[in-house]
Amino acid sequence: MSKEVTVVMYHYVRDLKYSRYPEIKGLDVQLFKEQLEYILKHYNVVTMEELMEAKERNRDLPENALLLTFDDAYIDHYLNVFPILNDKGIQGTFFPPVKAITKHEVLDVNKIHFILASVGEKQMLIDEIFNIMDKYRDRYKLKDNEYYYKKYAIKNRFDTEEVVFIKRILQGGLPEKLRNEICDYLFRKYVSENESAFSRELYMNVDQLRCMKQNGMFIGVHGYDHYWLSTLDEEQQINEIELSMKFLQEVGESIDRWVVCYPYGDYDETLLKVIKGRGCTIGFTTEVAVANIERDYCLTLPRLDTNDLPKDRNAELRVIR
What does the buried/exposed string (b/e) look like for 75-113 if buried means 16 or more CB atoms within 10 Å of the residue's CB? Predict the structure, then answer.
């Protein structure tokens, strides 16, 4: 028995080659199937209820315990992931951003994904962003463009510096009103002029989430607006969490013991106080590590990305620490 659990994070899971956006950074369905067979060969998949019970009662988990998590409630999860999990009798935990589902709006983070998937020349996008920034520099008291590029254009293990810059400047590097305006403009220009229709195709709806819950899946909190939560004041954080908890009730999930996945993995001490006072049991970040429920704080557990595990059922066990 063990105190460790490997928590795996998924986003888009689709037939990429034949989708409208083959350049979107997602996991192909066939590779998901291969990875799941690898997981079932080398790990013991646990439920969220089992993880909460182990944490609350200081109980052991099975050796090589693993938890499956899926962020952002994409329709991919209902059409492609849920049938596979249901057929194999294993649970996934799904984190829906409420506003995207109830208001049929496309999250800025997803607008950015599809803009990037639609435009091959990333420098052209950067030039467009800079041109708009030039136009509004005095109104928003912006620094020069070079300042922002040096600050945000830092490549990571998945993206080039150009892609990281575009993501970061439009996710939080500029004042909210301005970055929303830029995202909307680029989305309409390169992706779709009908945001509502696009949203209905991109995300699950309430009935689909209820269906998954009724068939053994677990639903957690992922915010209302999908904000970087540490950038909000306490009152705004409370509003984000309480609206999300209300949504959990709408899809049939309990709010006596609930879990959260922080958008972008972002949180602060004030947020931890807010969720702890409202009965949150487990919180997930995007820190890359295998979680230890005895050593790690229960509200800031790390996760692995799908790319950290093999996508081949015959692969040897990859030990990750």
Answer: bbbbebbbeebbeeebbbbbbbbbbbbbebbbbbbbbbb
Fold (topology level) of 4-97+212-308: TIM Barrel (3.20.20)
Query: Residues, the chain, total?
Result: 321
Cα 112 from Cα 180, distance rounded (Å): 11
With CA atoms as reference, report the closest residue to 147 among 157, 132, 133, 128.
133
Q: Where are the domains of the chain?
A: 4-97+212-308, 108-197
**57-114 pLDDT, tens per residue?**
999 999 999 999 999 999 999 999 999 999 999 999 999 999 999 999 999 999 999 9
pTM given for the model: 0.93
Separation between Cα atoms, residue 133 and residue 119, nearest integer Å: 20
Q: Do residues 24 and 12 make contact, with C-beta atoms less than 8 angstroms apart?
A: yes
